[in-house]
Write a structure and sequence with these properties.
Length: about 475
């Protein structure tokens, strides 16, 4: 049986947090003289009331601990219930509940897919709310990835559990201190991003909104043209830097903060991600120069920005890369699957899983050439735990199967193959833009059928929580215990 008391208590606390956050866009709309402040205020009161009831109903003097099953249930219900309440303010701008739920789920999972159009004409309150959802969602994702997923031994994440369970290597002595440190680093990055954007010409409002969505690698913008609206090379390069910073493992930041600055360069994920981004960006830049006759400095900026945006699953756009031709379309589709580092705000498969897969392939080739040779798999200076290779391979198989399943389902709803496949890939990978007229960088998800939006909302949640792997890899005996 599940221990519902701590689950209710945490859910109530999260709902109260969301309710408190609703006050900020309410104040912005009130200051602008926009009547939407009433919608935010009413939503805040209703959300806080339900959250308060959950906290009171679960109150107990005795401390309670979460088991693996409790953690599984908590992570699932949190995204479903919080999204349901976070969707309420979107109804105030004319969205039906299906669209509102889709927009809220896209925000909290930092996916960045949107059904809203004419962003430049929307009230500032709703634009700020979208940014706040991605900011809060990004922080929640990091905490989940560092504290819960390794505990659940999901898709090779146990590789990082050993780092936190070994007292001699422990980053911080408790989960509370670790969460506090993560939040401080996260907030510091956002503040630095705000100051950078503002110094480069953004208004204070745009700087705040875009900083929340850049560090969270979410990609919601206050303008229909996304980052292309500003027509500033300096802003795009700054955005590239902070997208990468949001995609790096936050535990490494904490190590650097505590006196080990070399940890950033020592981490295999960090080196792998940066090396991959540099290599692919240069390939695309040279191709744009040769095939599209762009000036190299422009080609390098466009290539680096859009490659970084897709790989880190941010989803910002400076231009419509689908207009670059079939080579770019095929490449960017593959980049949707990559993702950033474990323990960051990014989605996708994650760099470390690709690196472990590379180690497995190399060891298999060595074994074929020298059958008697013993190959030891070492990652990040440590020997891989015995169960990690299987978990990673299983994750990759299930990940691709999940994308295929959602592609078939969306195709059954009448969507074309390109739209179905890219929408599924971006939803499971929490990327944002897909391919085609509807879900591409210049498209809008409002053109999808209502059922397709619910399906993609579910896919976004599954991708963010890696629930498909949990459901498959957890033993049946676990549920019977």
């Amino acid at each position: 049986m599940f221990n519902l008391r701590p689950i209710f208590s945490v859910l109530g606390l999260l709902l109260c947090t969301i309710a408190s956050a609703m006050i900020l866009p309410a104040l912005v709309d009130f200051a602008d003289g926009d009547r939407d402040w009433v919608i935010f205020f009413a939503s805040s009161v209703a959300t806080f009331f339900i959250g308060g009831l959950l906290i009171l109903s679960a109150y107990d003097d005795q401390p309670a601990e979460l088991t693996v099953k409790d953690s599984f249930l908590l992570t699932t219900t949190s995204w479903v219930i919080i999204t349901a309440f976070a969707a309420m303010p979107f109804i105030g701008v004319g969205l039906n509940y299906t669209d509102a739920y889709f927009e809220a789920m896209s925000g909290l999972t930092t996916t960045g897919a949107t059904v809203l159009t004419k962003l430049d004409q929307l009230p500032r309150g709703i634009l700020l709310w979208r940014a706040i959802l991605q900011g809060l969602g990004g922080l929640g994702i990091i905490v989940t990835a560092i504290l819960i997923l390794p505990f659940l031994r999901v898709g090779g994440m146990q590789l990082f559990q050993t780092e936190h369970s070994d007292r001699s290597e422990k980053v911080l002595p408790s989960a509370i201190e670790l969460t506090t440190a993560i939040a401080l680093v996260y907030i510091l990055l956002i503040i630095l991003c705000v100051l950078t954007y503002a110094s480069l010409g953004m208004t204070a409002f745009d700087a705040i909104c875009h900083s929340l969505t850049t560090v969270a690698t979410g990609g919601f913008s206050t303008h229909d043209e996304s980052m292309g609206f500003f027509k500033s090379a300096a802003i795009e390069w700054a955005c590239i830097v902070f997208m990468i910073l949001g995609a790096l493992p936050f535990v490494v930041y904490i190590k650097a903060w505590r006196g080990r600055p070399s940890a950033l360069l020592e981490d295999a994920q960090t080196r792998g991600l940066i090396g991959f981004l540099v290599g692919v960006s240069l390939i695309v830049a040279f191709w744009l120069t040769a095939a599209r006759e762009m000036e190299f400095h422009d080609a390098l900026r466009y290539a680096t920005f859009n490659v970084t945006s897709i790989v880190t699953t941010t989803g910002f756009a400076s231009t419509d890369y689908t207009q670059w031709g079939p080579f770019a379309v095929g490449l960017f589709f593959l980049l949707m699957f990559v993702g950033g580092c474990a323990g960051s705000t990014t989605g996708g498969i994650k760099i470390y899983r690709l690196q472990v897969t590379g180690l497995l392939i190399r060891s298999h080739i060595v074994h074929l050439m020298s059958p008697n040779r013993v190959v030891t798999l070492v990652y990040n200076g440590k020997r891989l735990p015995a169960d990690v290779p299987f978990s990673v391979v299983a994750f990759l198989a299930i990940y691709m199967s999940t994308v295929g399943l959602f592609t078939v389902v969306l195709s059954a709803l009448g969507l074309d193959l390109v739209t179905s496949l890219s929408a599924s890939a971006q939803a499971v990978g929490n990327v944002g833009p897909g391919l085609g007229d509807i879900v591409g960088p210049s498209g809008n998800y409002s053109g999808l059928p209502g059922l397709a939006k619910w399906i993609l909302s579910f896919a976004m949640m599954m991708g963010r929580l890696e629930l498909f792997t949990v459901l498959v890899l957890l033993r049946i005996e676990f549920w019977r215990s």
